[in-house]
Backbone:
């Protein structure tokens, strides 16, 4: 799990800079996801923390968060392709309140039969993985 400081910084940045779709909190909450419009969800699969130097007071958190770009099934990929490029541009090379973005992957299609969206056939999902580091001074 990413630290609360990292989650807050990224959530605030995305809320201030992304206006193309609604942003849905998909972390351990049951929400009604839009069925007739594209939306974005964030996932926080994990991070590690280690001492940045022997005997120092700086610890480094390195982790990944995933942006789910969810579009309506059957409407092609043009809208999601545009959203993906825009989203990558928002994060590429950024320092967001000390959260340094190290790598942004190009969008990949998610095919997961366990996801409600795909079982009902109403969504097409792109994933963008973003690697970061964040220094914590103790």
Residues:
């Amino acid at each position: 799990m990413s630290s609360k400081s990292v989650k807050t910084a990224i959530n605030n940045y995305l809320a201030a800079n992304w206006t193309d779709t609604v942003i849905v909190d998909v972390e351990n909450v049951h929400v009604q996801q839009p069925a007739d419009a594209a939306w974005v969800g964030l996932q926080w699969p994990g991070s590690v923390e280690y001492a940045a130097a022997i005997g120092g007071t700086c610890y480094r958190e390195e982790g990944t968060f995933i942006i789910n770009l969810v579009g309506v099934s059957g409407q092609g990929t043009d809208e999601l392709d545009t959203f993906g490029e825009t989203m990558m541009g928002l994060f590429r090379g950024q320092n967001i309140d000390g959260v340094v973005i190290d790598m942004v992957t190009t969008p990949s299609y998610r095919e997961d039969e366990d996801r409600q969206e795909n079982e009902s056939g109403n969504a097409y999902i792109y994933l963008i993985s973003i690697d970061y580091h964040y220094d914590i001074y103790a």
